[in-house]
Amino acid sequence: MNESIDGKALVYCVGAFNTPNGKTAHGLVRFTERYEVVGVLDPAYAGQDAGMVLDGRPNGIPVFAGMEAAVSALRDAGKLPKSLVIGLAPDGGRLPPEAKASIKKALQMGWNVDSGLHDFLTNDSELTQLAQKHQCRIRDIRKTPDRDKLHFFTGDIEKVDCLKLAVLGTDSALGKRTTAWILVHAFRKAGISAEMVGTGQTAWMQGARYSMVMDSCINDFVSGEIEHAVVSAWKNEAPKVIVIEGQGSLMNPAYPGGFEILAAGRPDYVILQHAPKRLEYDGFPGYKLHPLPEQIRAIEVISGKKVLAVTLNHEQMTREEILPACEAITKETGLPAFDVLEYGADDLIALIKQHIR
Amino acid sequence: MNESIDGKALVYCVGAFNTPNGKTAHGLVRFTERYEVVGVLDPAYAGQDAGMVLDGRPNGIPVFAGMEAAVSALRDAGKLPKSLVIGLAPDGGRLPPEAKASIKKALQMGWNVDSGLHDFLTNDSELTQLAQKHQCRIRDIRKTPDRDKLHFFTGDIEKVDCLKLAVLGTDSALGKRTTAWILVHAFRKAGISAEMVGTGQTAWMQGARYSMVMDSCINDFVSGEIEHAVVSAWKNEAPKVIVIEGQGSLMNPAYPGGFEILAAGRPDYVILQHAPKRLEYDGFPGYKLHPLPEQIRAIEVISGKKVLAVTLNHEQMTREEILPACEAITKETGLPAFDVLEYGADDLIALIKQHIR
């Protein structure tokens, strides 16, 4: 188990834990290499174990009613955090007023604050002045980087000679990122060095050392930033495999995504995440999801890349339905299908292994 | 002939006129509804007619050696400009030091300054202070708008009930914008109200009233900004036809483009610009251009939209080669093909007319 990148962190999720608006907190409570999560703030579940609340399995992360309770308990446990991480993902991405008080308390204690909200903390002079005074750092993960920090596409991607996989999906909010992490960890468990290349803020918060936030990037630099992340992972880590997190879906009715990943990331193969029970595009009621074979064809026509396997999202399925659904996908597409979340990734890894140089 | 949007303008192109680095100036000298171009600055062609220099046809736009000469001549002619427009498009988009002196002179006279360089004039406090002092305006066309000025996709595009065309291309730098303007003007000449929706800085500089600059936009807002431009054009102008300028090409090896235009602009049909003599992607030597039929298939697979016709870019062709090339395209793709730059758009308009509601 490596050291976390940014050390101990308390996750702010007041009024939102175990609700859709708390999904950033949930991701951090379930898995992150960036932080050592030592607690969650939400009075609704004060005193309970965050893992029990979320997944029915204790994970030793306590939920606290508020800052005071958290600080005293964590101080006694010798686990005072270095950072407060905003675990809220409210619609619209605005910062609730009551959250600001906790952020100020954190800064006054010299803690760093990380936020993925659209409402940038660094635009609030009161907060930035507090951070300066107490010599700590506020990071707005969603903030668009300045042009002078961004990269144009160079073609260096051609030099990357390890196996490159892209985990794309037939829709958004489908588990592409989760599947990508499962693959990376399964490769490592199998003794095959693997790196994750993140393309969203949550992957960054979970510790993807090589990543960019596609939706906040200036359009002209998206390709270059993807290439730069992949090339950096390859140069610095020399892994056998690089797994690139996909974004959106190629045929989304309004937000088509993944094209720059195929073009600038130059994956050798695509792993395609799919939820058989999902009939309409996420957030677009009335827009029928394109059938799986059409989406596979679109990927292959556009990029000339081959889809190697389908990974199943078993939402709205019973455990009994999973394996028959995988068989049905194979029958329909001629591709092997796996539920790596339910059954692990060993079989998929065994399949991919043959393609490692 | 309508009034121009921003009035009389002098175009700065010192050392670059009639060279690739002067292409913004060339576009403005050939056609713009935003400015009334009254002169060009470049000592290399001082005293000559800009149209003669560029296209061998006089257009009454004089080239001047420098600011002093321009100002005195234009004052005598009663044509003093309101704006200085930077007509340079140097690689890297940096501002040459000698240009800054002319910009300062312009601001000191109270002229507005418009620039499409990557090097933002509004980041230069000396220039912004001068503009404030003399109550004039500096606009950096390429500057990424703040999030609070940007639009997310809403679905309002579904209400737009006029004919929507997208002019896409099989490569970048191929004449998509020029073809889009030719179509808009041909529709208007035929008494059919038409609006251009621009997606690049040059279209904006040429006076596309409804436009966004895709390459400078935050990725998350590209779809919403395209939708907003199309919906605004429809609401405010109630045209019979909207022509959307394409960007890049779907199968570009590094910078795939046009997907958001298909998804968020919801064109009824695509007009596809193609240069038969172009064998490799612009800027990507060694990357063979995908054959025309493959690119048409990609558009139709991804978007379900039909390509209605191919428009020819006759680069590196003799006049004698043009019509046979159009016939060859029709033979290869089953689609009608037109060189609207050489022969005008009447035949293409006649074809499209049948689809106007």
Number of domains of chain A: 2
Strand order of the largest sheet of chain A: 9-8-10-7-11-12-13
Helix fraction of chain A, binned, reads 25-40%
Question: What distance lies between the first and last C-alpha atoms of chain A, to the nearest angstrom?
Answer: 27 Å
The CATH homologous superfamily of the largest domain in chain A is termed P-loop containing nucleotide triphosphate hydrolases
Draw up the topology in text.
Two copies of one chain form a homodimer.
Chain A: E1 8-12, H1 23-30, E2 36-41, H2 50-55, E3 63-64, H3 67-76, E4 83-86, H4 97-108, E5 112-115, H5 125-133, E6 138-140, E7 163-169, H6 176-189, E8 194-198, H7 201-205, E9 210-211, H8 222-237, E10 241-245, H9 259-265, E11 269-274, H10 292-303, E12 306-312, H11 319-333, E13 337-338, H12 340-343, H13 346-353
Parallel strand pairs in A: 1-2, 1-4, 2-3, 4-5, 5-6, 7-10, 7-11, 8-9, 8-10, 11-12, 12-13
Question: How would you concisely characterize the structure shown here?
Answer:
Chain A has 13 helices and 13 strands.
Explain what you see.
2 copies of one chain form a homodimer. The first copy, chain A, has 357 residues and is an alpha/beta fold. Helix content of chain A is 35%, strand content 16%. The first copy, chain A, is built from 13 helices and 13 strands. Chain A has a 7-stranded parallel β-sheet, with helices on both faces. Chain A has a 6-stranded parallel β-sheet with strand order 3-2-1-4-5-6, sandwiched between helices. In chain A, helix 5 (125-133) links the parallel strand 5 and strand 6. In chain A, helix 4 runs parallel beside helix 5 (125-133) and helix 8 (222-237) crosses helix 9. The longest helix of chain A is centred in the middle third of the chain and has 16 residues, at 222-237. The two termini of chain A are 27 Å apart. The model of chain A has no long low-confidence stretch (mean pLDDT 95). Chains A and B meet through helix 8, helix 9 and helix 10 of A and helix 8, helix 9 and helix 10 of B.
